[in-house]
Amino acid sequence: MKKQIKKKNTADKAESLLYLGICSFGSSLEKGLQFATKSLDEFKKLENSNANQSSIGRSKCLQLISTIYSRQNKIKDAIIMSQEVVRILKNKSDTSGTLGLAYISLGSLNEIEKRKDSVEIYYQLALKDFEKHKNLAYLPNAYLKIGKIAQHKNQKEISLLNFIKSFQIANISENKQAKVSCLLAIGKWHSDMEHNNSKAENYYNQAHQIAEPDYVYDGNVQFKYAETPVIYTSSETPLWMYISFSMGTIENATFGTKIIIDNVRVNNSALTNTTFQTSEFTVYPTVTNQFINIAKRKSTPNWDYDFRILSIDGKLMSQQSTTFSESSLFTIDVSQLVKGIYFIQSEGFTSKFIKE
Questions:
Q1: How many Å apart are CA 353 and CA 272, to the nearest integer?
Q2: Which residues, including other chains, have CB under 8 Å from residue 207's CB and lie 6 or more apart?
Q3: Mean pLDDT (whole number) for 177-181
Q4: Of 24, 114, 160, 327, which is most buried by a Cβ count within 10 Å?
Q5: How far apart are CA 329 and CA 281, in angstroms?
Q6: For residues 167 and 186, is the Cβ–Cβ distance under 8 A?
Q7: CA–CA separation, 8 vs 117, rounded Å?
Q8: Are strands 349-355 and 287-288 parallel, antiparallel or unpaired?
Q9: Which residues, in sequence order, are CB contacts of 65 under 8 Å at separation 6+?
Q10: What's the pTM?
């Protein structure tokens, strides 16, 4: 039983590190690479107990590393990483879209290397994989890639058809970013292929209307409002979700000094609850300035447990042990922690709380 819990804890840790890598690389490539490498090491530990989970998890890490390498202009290293992902997943049943993303990366990287024949092959393979698993989040980009290649070959009907397919899927999935890219591509098609600048301008204006957020007012203060859905494509249920953002930087641009985040919802339910339940424990309150309580559920074995509190970047903040009886309640003082989001972990479970 303890071996099973240890295996589950390793898998949870690997997934958590991977999510942290995905969330952090946009603002810090080095930090994202650190999390991805740590996650890769944890997934390797599962090779003997769950080979399939290990290989799929390692592939996700390698593809994230490939993306980071490409942004660091390490093109050859990025190609090696994505090629390894293809080698691992080519004959496996993976519905997450990782294989398709590896093909997209290889297409883009070969485009940089000016290997035109390889570019189209990889984009076609990506499209095939996304269509097979109905990955709506990734399909619009794949159709756009194929459409642009067809347009470059002067294949008018084929290119336009791919752009339209891309827009239809983006519209169904409410992917605003993809809709903007599609409308710009269609506009360019009308300008380049039909020399119809008025029609092109119409599509450009539609793209601008979607991209430009609405304005709302708070007294004399003007805000831009943007609603951004988060599309989770994996068939697995995550233990937690970390949503991050970063301010863009544009030369000579002026930005405001206040950002307001509101109405964060998951499956149309409010994100913050007063109590968070896991399969083994109930942890409450999830928003606190002094204590958190951990209550053991009746089905949980009466063992010794180590509880670790981790910061959002995975740093160990404290560790305490307790022995539960049938009705035990364990209280941890968190008053010394600085304000922020923390995770509490033990063998087989992870929970989140916010220190005010």
A1: 10
A2: 179, 180, 183, 184, 187
A3: 89
A4: 24
A5: 10
A6: yes
A7: 44
A8: parallel
A9: 33, 36, 37, 40, 81
A10: 0.60
- 255-304 pLDDT tens trace: 455 555 555 555 444 444 444 444 567 788 888 888 888 887 666 666 77
Q: How far is CA 32 from CA 38, 68, 80, 143, 326, in A?
A: 10, 8, 18, 29, 41
Distance separating alpha carbons of residues 88 and 98, to the nearest angstrom: 11
**What per-residue confidence (pLDDT) applies to 270?**
41
The rounded distance, in Å, linking the Cα atoms of 201 and 181 is 14
What local confidence, expressed as pLDDT, does residue 142 receive? 93
Query: Rounded to the nearest 5°, which phi and psi values hold at 260?
Result: -115, 125
- Give CA torsion, residues 340, 344, 349, 351, to 10 deg: -30
3-state secondary structure the chain: CHHHHHHHHHHHHHHHHHHHHHHHCCCCHHHHHHHHHHHHHHHHCCCCCCHHHHHHHHHHHHHHHHHHHHHCCCHHHHHHHHHHHHHHHCCCCCCCCHHHHHHHHHHHHHHHCCCHHHHHHHHHHHHHHHHHHCCCCCHHHHHHHHHHHHHHCCCHHHHHHHHHHHHHHHHHCCCHHHHHHHHHHHHHHHHHHCCCHHHHHHHHHHHHHHHCCEEEEECCEEEEECCCCCCCCCCCCCCCCCCCCCCCCCCCCCCCCCCCCCCCEECCEECCCCCEECCCEEEECCEECCEEEEEECCCCCCCEEEEEEEECCCCEEEEEEEECCCCCEEEEECCCCCCEEEEEEECCEEEEEEEC
- Matching residue, tokens 């930087």: 249
Alpha-carbon span 15 to 36, nearest angstrom: 10
Q: For the chain, give the number of residues.
A: 356
Tokens 């070969």 found at: 110
pLDDT of residue 175: 85
Q: What is the mean pLDDT of residues 76-83?
A: 93
Residue 156 has a pLDDT of 92
pLDDT of residue 250: 44
Contact between residue 333 and residue 291 where contact means Cβ atoms under 8 Å apart: yes
What would the two tokens of residue 319 be?
Answer: 């560790």
